Amino acid sequence: MERTLVERLMTAYGSFRDGHMDAALVQYLLLAEQGYEVAQSNVAFILDQTEEAQIFSENETYPRALLHWTRAAAQGYTVARIKLGDYHFYGYGTDVDYETAVIHYRLASEQQHSAQAMFNLGYMHEKGLGIKQDIHLAKRFYDMAAEASPDAQVPVFLALCKLGLVYTLQYLHDLNMSDLVSQVDLDQLLGPEWDLYLMTVIALLLGTVIAYRQRQHQAAPPRPPARPPQEQPQPEAPPQPEAPPQPQAQAPPQAEEEQQ
Prior knowledge:
Layout: H1 2-17, H2 21-33, H3 37-49, H4 58-74, H5 78-90, H6 98-112, H7 115-127, H8 135-148, H9 153-174, H10 178-183, H11 186-190, H12 194-219
Helix pairs in contact: 1-2, 2-3, 3-4, 4-5, 5-6, 6-7, 7-8, 8-9, 9-12
């Protein structure tokens, strides 16, 4: 039975790889109705990402994708849980519901430790969407996202730069400078998506600095190799004085024998 399931999944994937979206979708739908999470998430993915599937009308695409994301999320699939938050945040296949989006992001953050869900919660705390606006909690969730995944460090850096500007404006407002701050209406000056423009500018500046440092590092002349330490000449020992010749004892001359 298990081998048959694998073969059916591979057949459906082969149809998807060859561009036969309708055939792949039908095969995944049959398996999804049997409760297999992989098939449920693949059905939702095809309906969400491709426009080549012609089985359902355009009005049915997102609601059916939402249905299968819901089934896959119920089986613990993290991406499906985040997709549910996205669908309720943007109003795909349902009405815009920030409170429900927060619930799904919080579940993905607490149960699956998803960096994407933590980042989204930070953004919603920053904007006050479906949850109380709190700059400090926004920074906390941004920091948690950076700790949860190295891939989130650059987006978190950009978000924190933007958050610093928002915090500065709020701080000036708290210092009874509301007249000055009220004149700085960024939504009216730069548009409702000024934060995206700011993050884009910061990303370009960051990329320019990194490229400049890499070019400067490549242009630097190579260091000469370190010279090995030279051996210190050892002082030569003074020549030992030659021992004086020892006098050799000579035998005394023998007396000549008296001639008889």
